[in-house]
Every structure is written in C-alpha cells, then in structure tokens.
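Board notes (copied after class):
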Amino acid sequence: MAKLMTFMYANETRNDFINGQNIQTINTPLLSLKPAFVPGQLSFSVIFGINEFDFAKEHAFQYKLMDPDGNIVVDTGIIQIPPNPNKENIPKIDGFVGDFDLRNVVFMKEGKYKYEVIFDNTKLKDDYIIVKGAGINGNSSKA
C-alpha cells in the first residue's frame, strides 16, 4: 500500500537546472498560512512524497482543503499519474516527490483548515493547517 512519506507547505517551489540536473528547490517551508488579511488571498505550494506503490501502473492523486466549516476551498480533482515508461529501472525507484502551486486561494475566515491527501481512493493524510491573517506589520488581521 502507498505511503505518504513527505508533506509540506511552502511559499513556492522551483525546478532549477544545476550541474546538468533538474533540482527541486523549496522556498520557505510554512507551518501556517498567513494571507495579509482575512478575508484575503494567498499563493503557496504543496509538496508531497509517496512511496511503496507499483510504478508500472497508473495511479490517481487528489488534494482537498476545507475551511473550518467544512466548505471546500481547494479540490484538485483526480490527477492521473501515468505508469513509469522506464520499466527497466522501476525496481530501483524508491518513490517520487511532487509539488503543485495554488495561486490566489481565497480564505474567508481564520482557523483550522482541514486537508486530505488521497492516492488511489485511499486517504493517506487527514490533518489541518492554521490560517491566520498577518495584518499590517505581521499583526493579526483582527482589530
């Protein structure tokens, strides 16, 4: 059964070409999401690593983020992951790390936002992240 080995929020991710290799760079890992104000918008990245699954088969990935009232804020829908075409190297592969950017996500209220990571219709992670307005000079958005 697949396992989620890595999960992280960050300000952004980039794919840099360094010394002839494509390297994933994670910029500013986040413990909470802090739009300037709430209600407000924020762009951020989600990074995940999954292993212990059959790379020779097609798989399905999905990410959901819900507000404190359970309303869906983000739903990637089902993303199909194709089989690895490099079949002769499959036994050597430990897993994969993926990332995606979420741009201008609207947050209507502060609080605990539940998220789910789903792989092949199995929930691999079910947790929350705090959303709190940064306000002016980093102060809370509440008066």
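Comment from the instructor: Residues 31 and 45 are 12 Å apart (CA to CA). The chain has one domain: 3-138.
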